[in-house]
Amino acid sequence: MCLAIPGKIKSIELQYGGAVRMATVSFGGITKEASLEMLPDADVDDYVLVHVGVAISKVNEEEAHKTFKYLEELGEIGELTDVDEYLPK
Amino acid sequence: MCLAIPGKIKSIELQYGGAVRMATVSFGGITKEASLEMLPDADVDDYVLVHVGVAISKVNEEEAHKTFKYLEELGEIGELTDVDEYLPK
Amino acid sequence: MKYMSEYRDPELAKKYLEEIKKTVTQPWSIMEVCGGQTHSLVKNGIIEMLPKTVTMIHGPGCPVCVTPLNIIDKAIHLALEENVILCSFGDMLRVPGSKKNLLEAKAEGADIRILYSPLEAVRIAEDHPDKEVVFFAVGFETTAPANALSVIHAHRKELKNYSILTSHVLVPPAIKAVIDDEESKIDGFLAAGHVCTIMGNSEYHPLSKTYEVPIVVTGFEPLDVLQGILMVVRQLEANKAEVENQYARIVKEEGNPEAQKMIHQIFEIKNQIWRGIGEIPDSGYQVRPEYGDFDAKRKFQIEIPEAPENPDCISGQIMKGLKKPFECSQFGKKCKPTNPLGAPMVSSEGACAAYYHFSGLVEA
Amino acid sequence: MKYMSEYRDPELAKKYLEEIKKTVTQPWSIMEVCGGQTHSLVKNGIIEMLPKTVTMIHGPGCPVCVTPLNIIDKAIHLALEENVILCSFGDMLRVPGSKKNLLEAKAEGADIRILYSPLEAVRIAEDHPDKEVVFFAVGFETTAPANALSVIHAHRKELKNYSILTSHVLVPPAIKAVIDDEESKIDGFLAAGHVCTIMGNSEYHPLSKTYEVPIVVTGFEPLDVLQGILMVVRQLEANKAEVENQYARIVKEEGNPEAQKMIHQIFEIKNQIWRGIGEIPDSGYQVRPEYGDFDAKRKFQIEIPEAPENPDCISGQIMKGLKKPFECSQFGKKCKPTNPLGAPMVSSEGACAAYYHFSGLVEA
Amino acid sequence: MQLQCPMPKLDFDVITLGHGSGGVLTNKLLDSGVFDVLSNPILDERHDGAIFQLEGKMAFSTDSFLVSPIFFPGGNIGELAVNGTVNDLAMCGAIPKYLSLSFIIEEGLKVSEFWEILIAIKGACEEAGVHVVTGDTKVVEKGKGDKIFINTSGVGSIHSKANISAKNIKAGDKIIVSGNIASHGMAIMSVREGLEFDSEILSDTINLNHTISSLLDSFGEHIHLLTDPTRGGIATVLKETAQSINLGIDMAQRDLPIDNQVASACELLGLDPIYVANEGLFIAFVDASIADDFLEALHKDENGANAKIIGTVTEEHPKQVIMESAIGGKRVVSMLPGEQLPRIC
Amino acid sequence: MQLQCPMPKLDFDVITLGHGSGGVLTNKLLDSGVFDVLSNPILDERHDGAIFQLEGKMAFSTDSFLVSPIFFPGGNIGELAVNGTVNDLAMCGAIPKYLSLSFIIEEGLKVSEFWEILIAIKGACEEAGVHVVTGDTKVVEKGKGDKIFINTSGVGSIHSKANISAKNIKAGDKIIVSGNIASHGMAIMSVREGLEFDSEILSDTINLNHTISSLLDSFGEHIHLLTDPTRGGIATVLKETAQSINLGIDMAQRDLPIDNQVASACELLGLDPIYVANEGLFIAFVDASIADDFLEALHKDENGANAKIIGTVTEEHPKQVIMESAIGGKRVVSMLPGEQLPRIC
Ligand code: SF4
Ligand code: SF4
Ligand SMILES: [Mg+2]
Ligand SMILES: [Mg+2]
Ligand SMILES: [Mg+2]
Ligand SMILES: [Mg+2]
Ligand SMILES: [Mg+2]
Ligand SMILES: [Mg+2]
Ligand SMILES: [Mg+2]
Ligand SMILES: [Mg+2]
Ligand SMILES: [Mg+2]
Ligand SMILES: [Mg+2]
User: Fold this and answer.
1) What residue stretches are annotated with the PurM-like C-terminal domain (chains E, F) (predicted)?
2) Domain containing A55: what range?
3) Which of B29, C273, D90, F138 is the most exposed place for a label (fewest CB within 10 A)?
């Protein structure tokens, strides 16, 4: 349910005298408009999750790494040394 | 102007409780509906002239022959003896 | 078909032609008022068969040709309304408006239906209660009763979505206008048989008398036309000016009183603009105010500015018989049936189109 | 794509799977609430990779599947109105109504537009002032703010021809209903990451506590799902019952307050019928009376009698995790993706469709 | 010609976009048995194209068929599509062999109607002795088509005695029309909304290839040109030919064979039959020396009973077609600017 | 590929019904010079069909093309129509030679657009080395078509070394895809109303015949099957093939070549690229012994730079296509019930 994908804000346009902020969001090179009305503090270069044309969350970069480190942190897979290769570049 | 062709009334149907008389008219074998509202005395087997779906005149058989006889009657073409072949059968 | 095919007999036609030749002693110009007669002349090659001394002049009797530009523009405007179904006779679709014709409007998406009868349009209105159905009611006196009848039917069925966009023209005032023109050189008239079928011949007697021209009410088959021409020529040669009825198998002296009643129930006479000719007093019909709900002009109140006719088009002079199509500078050049500048180049009844086809001009 | 592709790494996936296998000591049934997670499980072949002791149960989290038959019928009815443009997300078009689906209505001539966003529908309404534009607003909490926003936009633009036909469902009451079912045998839940993105996690703490089930808010990429399963399994094995957040890169504890504001501006909570399940108290949204002009249900007052669900379809039991699709007598027989008897056979998120494709049943 | 084949049982009544999507529904339609009526070894390969061998020179022709209504007195769009391309190949002097068949279906078409069309296609193929060997089915959204359009293309081997080319026409050649004119167009008119009338008029759609083949057997190179006067009617084809050969054509109205009802229908609507479409008719330009024999042979053929010599090629008035009218006048026959529209004037 | 030909001067801007009526306007359109771009001696005969000779075995294929919008990133419907049939012939192992070209135009189409399409057709024909030899132009009423539909049929001579047939496929055969998947379908999506997005995605429409011909030169009978995964995408073609050969196919998601933007667009709309249409792509089933050489040869070809071996034919799981997912799981690949619709779920 609720297909939503993360993209990077390339630019922001104000509409209705500033009442509406519309972002141009890049998803792996393609771009589409998304409303920022639900993310008042999102800014250019932020990654946001977009669902049906509306940005609904800013991606938290720090938290994003945790999935790659979770097993390591469990302390149960000592051999997991190559964790860096899963990290976003 | 005013394309109109003669056809023979095959049948008559009363519509709107008799207010409207519609005829099925045969034109050389094909048939089409025509209103008889402008020809109250037209009847089955009469030839009528139909224009845009409305019968506007009953064909006068007697008068119809005159075109074939006109030259003859001018008395100026004595040799016109084969007039019968132009008459409608 | 009975009462048609017999009037196409080649032998008798030859005899009529011989008789015309025998009768004529000097040049005569005869106007066939009606486009249907023009059509018959052209289709049957009669013009070339007549003696050179008899010149046929093609009159204004093509309702398609004389419908004003502005009404065509209005019809196009209405047709392009999303909510409107415009119904029309087929031959109106190629008549040029100021910017386009109905066929082009159709290509743009207008819902335009070609019908055989205005009564069909009433049926369409019944079938599409959510649409406005407008019948483009053009025509001469012949068609007026049928168009009136469609209103009577719609009224009886209490339809609120049916109306007619009228452009009705009347023949006798037009004949009068043609004769009244100073340059006019018409010696006699073939009057329009089907118009007289409705209206009778009474209006022609004063015309014939006043202007001293023979008027023969004539039919449309080749023998009809030939006989009509002969009757005019005989009067001219005998220096007579009477109303004769060649088409008595169809036309009664008094016309069709029922049809006249219907016309007068729905329509009233008004001044009318004839395309290419201008306004002629008392030469048209408009819907009576009592039936205003069925009058598309009242109902939709479309204001379309009058557009100028193509200034190179001399159709008015042609329809009055003052000029021949090939005297028009545009004839066969910019103006062709595929791209008519004026209405007479549109239908095969229009004088220009008739000449164009007849002369066999061919497009590259 | 950043923040997506990384979560598809095969090596790390293998390690997660090994860790799950290592961790599990007894059979567990885990429901992934969300259809997006079902889709990910199926598309990535995760179900077969899991140890046999871990059974994934596909929850009711597919808005397409749970939209009531009657609302589908209403959408179809509206779409077939000549004056209406019905806009919808693509996946609603194949969901069976009582007689046909929206695709079939489209084949009959209904003007139905597939859109990416409800904001597009507002634009269409602006562009077609002469039409009524209705957006078929289905979805869970994730989609509710966007649908609400479309009303806010339309209101700001003073559009009189825009409305939404809502069928909004809420996840926590559904989870509660699933657990409350006597026959329920679910040990833990993967909660729907995108729903929590909007609403936050607060509603899950009492659920977890009351029913003593682990609930892990989980994302949609394979590593997300695998991590989520591992986190549930670890809790179960440790006899814990807490709310954890696997998807913290997106989901904040408090959710998105702006989005919640928009929801509450436009919608109010109501009892909602879930297709195949029945009415669940306080599990849906309806448009507040203040915005009634934008509520298609109010605006069009369509009365469509409730039609019975196909009696052979056991989709309710399937969505509660009580039965597996292949336990349905119609599965793969009368009911196939080309001819779905129930909604779970429609989208690739529906449990029945997922099993159908996964099991590789092939039509003759 | 239509066989009474029972339609296969299907779980869908109308064709929808999915049937053209290339997915399960497309395969379902293809596998439904609906297309089995057209089965033959080459088609059954179901590859991207058909593979076969043709000896010697070949002809290749294409036409797309759109007719409203798709079912009309005397036939339907299916047989029209087969006969149209079969006849175009025959007009090239070819023996038609293989057809391609491509449907553009507007979603919502009833499967039962599609079936009826397929049965007509099958029947027409059998009559003509041709096989559909490759095909395509596309579905367009409602309102973006008109029930069904059919394209057929075809190939055939040129008859060994054929040498058909407008270049072979010379002054004195006789022009023969194979039957009554204007039947197809008026059959369609008779069921057009707003214009319809009751009649026994049937479309003349028929395959002409066997007729042509046996005429070629007998008259070979003396047949200079064959052409089928479909859209635009005989007038258009004659005018086009006169223009392309830079010679004139003389013809007479009284020689034109026409059915009484068709003639009456033309009067009713104000249409000129020489511009009305035909489907099962051909016009032959033949050497004057064989004209009478050709006509005699044609009269014995089931498709030529009403054949007539309608005109002569002349050096006078090059590029012009002159028709003698019913009463003996002369009239220039030109092309129309567009489709003939019913007149009131 | 589009030549900058100036459009002939015409006295009409849009195409109307009259242009399809067979009368003056039809001839005017034909004579306008618009079609001169396609001129060649066979076409210029303008008879009911084309006449020519082809040696040996031949292939014959047809397709109707309907695409909305008719102009899309990377091409237009004109080149699509040429390339589509050229490629279908190439898939049969044929050297495409002659095409038929049939237009169904919705009245109102701008002549300038029609011209642009014709220029694209000309360019595509030149690229492929084929000639349009016979054609047809029909016009439908507004609202009964969708701007323009094009049918092309084509014939070609079978390559002397070709022996293309699904029957030749055996277990162990390697499956090679010639380039990036899903580009055409996503190029179209990017300009679909209500779904549009900005991207550099271009349709992959291209002619494959020269590529195929040189592969046949080198690998002849070792190429067992060639097929172009158009509608329904590669999944549908592979599934159809597996069903028809009664063998299984193993493949892996990671092996599928796909452009980044195309992949992203699929994520955005929730579409699976294996079901998205391609136009300039082919799939070859080849003998394992030559698979690497075949791939190497393809990599050197301008149309094969991104070619990859994507799967293997297996005796296991007959009729099933099994795809290994990104993380190594297994998934059954089946056909979709209809066109893929964008999802929110
Ligand atoms: S030829 Fe054309 S421009 Fe000249 S008068 Fe006739 S209609 Fe007008
Ligand atoms: S298989 Fe079909 S009938 Fe059975 S539960 Fe699923 S959707 Fe319902
Ligand atoms: Mg309209
Ligand atoms: Mg609608
Ligand atoms: Mg193909
Ligand atoms: Mg052809
Ligand atoms: Mg043909
Ligand atoms: Mg195809
Ligand atoms: Mg032909
Ligand atoms: Mg093909
Ligand atoms: Mg193809
Ligand atoms: Mg053609």
Assistant:
1) 170-321
2) 5-80
3) B29
